[in-house]
């Protein structure tokens, strides 16, 4: 065991603590005595008749009617909620159908445009091939000069027929190309007009649906503010 130091107790501090404990105990005893002296006594009231002007049977009948009305109101609220939910689902389905229909129409327009482009490319290719064939035929014929024009031989007549046929083919090809371009332009205008009409129809349908939902919501608010307007007091169960 190592060295240690012995500290003597402080008598003054101990006496102060004991005195504080005695004072606190005395205060608690005084508080309990004061509560005991100031405890409220029994309440004495004069007997009197309570309740309204209705009898017990009438009160119970009224309570039963209110219970029945609350049940029907809850049922009506559930039905309105189911209707609103179903209407929202139908509106969402119609919206998805409209989107799918619009996508299908765009694909159809794209397919038609591609078909027209293929036809135009085919006609242009045919036109170039025809020109190439006619150019090869022209290279096999002699050049026409003033003497050949003055003295038309069988070769000059063949060349004129070939040249006339070539010009007719070119005119036909140009006319067909112009007709196809006009047809494509008319189809594009028709599709644009149709899309505009469908967009207006969708806008009107959306406005009508929104108006219907708002009217239903206002009706529900009116039914909530006037709960007794649906069920008449003459209801006998």
UniProtKB/TrEMBL annotation:
Residues 81-124 form a coiled coil. The keyword Cytoplasm does not apply. Keywords: Coiled coil. Residues 194-212 have a biased composition (Basic and acidic residues). The keyword Coiled coil applies. PANTHER family: EPITHELIAL-STROMAL INTERACTION PROTEIN 1 (PTHR22529:SF1). This is ESIP1 protein. It comes from Oceanites oceanicus (Wilson's storm petrel).
């Amino acid at each position: 065991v190592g060295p240690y130091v012995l500290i003597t107790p402080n008598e003054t501090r101990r006496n102060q603590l004991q005195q504080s404990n005695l004072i606190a105990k005395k205060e608690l005893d005084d508080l309990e005595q004061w509560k005991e002296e100031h405890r409220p006594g029994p309440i004495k009231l004069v007997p009197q008749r309570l309740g309204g002007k209705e009898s017990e049977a009438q009160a119970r009948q009224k309570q039963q009617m209110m219970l029945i009305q609350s049940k029907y109101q809850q049922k009506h609220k559930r039905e309105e909620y189911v209707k609103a939910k179903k209407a929202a689902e139908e509106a969402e389905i119609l919206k998805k159908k409209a989107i799918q229909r619009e996508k299908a129409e765009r694909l159809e327009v794209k397919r038609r445009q591609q078909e027209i482009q293929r036809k135009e490319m085919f006609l242009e290719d045919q036109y170039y091939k025809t020109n190439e064939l006619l150019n090869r035929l022209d290279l096999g014929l002699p050049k026409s000069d003033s003497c050949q024009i003055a003295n038309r031989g069988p070769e000059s007549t063949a060349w004129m027929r070939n040249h006339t046929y070539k010009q007719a083919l070119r005119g036909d090809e140009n006319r067909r190309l112009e007709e196809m371009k006009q047809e494509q332009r008319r189809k594009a205008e028709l599709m644009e007009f149709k899309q505009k009409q469908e967009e207006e129809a969708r806008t009107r349908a959306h406005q009508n649906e929104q108006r219907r939902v708002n009217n239903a919501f206002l009706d529900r608010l009116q039914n909530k503010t006037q709960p007794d307007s649906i069920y008449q007091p003459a209801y006998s169960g």
